[in-house]
Specification:
BirA Bifunctional Protein, domain 2, 5-stranded mixed sheet, 433 residues, Rossmann fold, binds adenosine monophosphate
């Protein structure tokens, strides 16, 4: 039987690969305007980084990571031998932990230096149950800003994400921006206890998952999809009522910057994001038109403790990740997916086989001049070469016939207007450009 791709993964065929490149470039262009520069980190990291950074109790770390072992170490593990934690790796389930690790390891945060602003794009891996908009390998673009806790960083980050989605073509009326503050290590513990007490008081109405999680992460119950749990959580204490003065003031300032920028948002006091590292601002961008349950196209927030958790110096941070595949679904649902504009600039056609070597040479020179050029590689007739040129979306066809070649020329046909004119071979690149 033919081998197929792993479940939950997708092949990006050329048209989609082109759109992914456009999406990434457009994102980086937007992010650059806010001072973010590209960074690349490994797609696998030591498992400990994710355990310490994201949190052992999160779904992402406890259930959804793909682990990576060298063949030798896998053999050891199977034989029941110990494999050192330094040799245990995982495919990255998200981008933040690796970027923060890279910033620490490369000493990018200097005393008194401006915040470090970096942007990334690439595949992430989660062993989730595949469904529409939920894959095991998916792509994200994201940013991280380390070294400043000012609310302007949070606000400009949220604005930047919204601007990017708008520039991509997702209609404003289809998007909903949810914001919340999750407090900090000073005010969140008391709030956690209050939520825990609430869940314990209603334990008989809640699902096994929520009951089990109550000790380690009671706030996850806000995300539970069970109707009964949702009912219990509807009357749970809300973090807004528990924020300390600093967190409240920080949150209010973020909101006032969003107001000043004319960004519409909804405050959602039940928005608690799935990764443990968030403090203060969290946000999520949802598409209201989503036909599946996977309506979040991006999200992020502040993580002032993450750097310390992975062993670096205390450094405040803020970041977000936007989901490429869900953005495509949102564009498709809005009928706003841009057309794929692929086409070759020039097709070099021959009237007689004798001219093939010359066609090869002309094509090469035009490619060297920067044009996208194709020619027939299958001995087609002139008529069939024109059909191929059409199929390839050629803007021009250069016809090399015996008379033209004798004069050092080609007949250049504009495939849109059907105009034809004689052009010296040496001038083809300039005329087609
Ligand atoms: P998260 O890192 O979970 O905050 O995810 C950020 C964004 O990545 C989400 O809003 C989604 O758009 C996207 N995303 C997360 N998980 C998946 C997945 N399994 N498949 C496709 N997109 C995803």
């Amino acid at each position: 039987m033919a081998i197929t791709r792993p479940e939950g993964t997708f092949d990006m065929l050329p048209a989609e690969a082109r759109f992914w490149a456009r999406y990434r470039d457009a994102a980086f262009q937007t992010f650059e305007r806010y001072g973010y520069q590209a960074i690349e980190t490994p797609v696998f990291e030591k498992t400990d980084l994710f355990v310490r950074g994201i949190g052992e109790a999160t779904d992402v770390v406890s259930k959804e990571m793909f682990h990576v072992l060298s063949g030798g170490n896998l053999g050891k593990l199977v034989a029941g031998e110990r494999v050192d934690s330094r040799s245990r790796f995982s495919l990255r389930p998200e981008g933040t932990a690796g970027v923060v690790r890279a910033i620490a390891q490369n000493g990018l945060i200097e005393q008194g230096a401006p915040p470090v602003k970096v942007a990334y794009a690439g595949p992430m891996f989660r062993a989730e149950r595949p469904q529409h908009g939920r894959q095991r390998q998916f792509n994200q673009v994201g940013i991280e800003c380390l070294g400043a806790d000012d609310p302007t960083i949070d606000a400009e980050g949220i604005i930047m994400a919204m601007r990017f989605f708008l520039s991509l073509g997702i209609p404003a009326q289809n998007m909903k921006l949810l914001v919340n503050s999750m407090g900090c290590e000073a005010c969140r513990p008391a709030y956690r206890e209050a939520v825990k007490a609430h869940i314990e008081a209603h334990a008989q109405d809640m699902c096994d998952d929520c009951r089990r999680r109550v000790e380690i992460n009671p706030l996850r119950a806000f995300d539970c999809k069970e109707e009964a749990c949702q009912q219990v959580m509807a009357s749970a204490p809300l973090i807004v009522d528990w924020l300390d003065d600093e967190c409240r003031s920080h949150y209010e300032q973020v909101l006032s910057y969003l107001d000043a920028a004319g960004i519409a948002y909804e405050q959602d006091a039940t928005l608690v994001r799935g990764l443990d590292y968030y403090t203060r601002t969290v946000f999520e961008i949802q598409v209201s038109t989503a036909t599946s349950g996977q309506n979040a196209i991006g999200g992020g927030g502040r993580y002032d403790k993450l750097m310390e958790q992975i062993g670096g110096k205390p450094t405040p941070g803020f970041g977000f990740a936007l989901g490429y595949e869900r953005s495509v679904i949102a564009l498709q649902e809005a009928g706003a997916m841009p057309e794929d504009a692929w086409g070759v600039d020039l097709f070099v056609a021959v009237v007689e086989d004798a001219a093939r070597a010359q066609a090869f040479d002309v094509a090469q020179k035009c490619r060297d001049a920067g044009l996208r050029v194709e020619l027939d590689h299958q001995g087609r007739s002139l008529k069939s070469q024109f059909k191929l040129a059409d199929k390839l979306g050629a803007a021009y066809v250069a016809i090399l016939g015996p008379d033209e070649l004798a004069a050092g020329q080609a007949t250049l046909r504009n495939m849109e207007t059907h105009e034809e004119r004689a052009v010296p071979l040496s001038e083809l690149p300039a005329v087609v450009q």
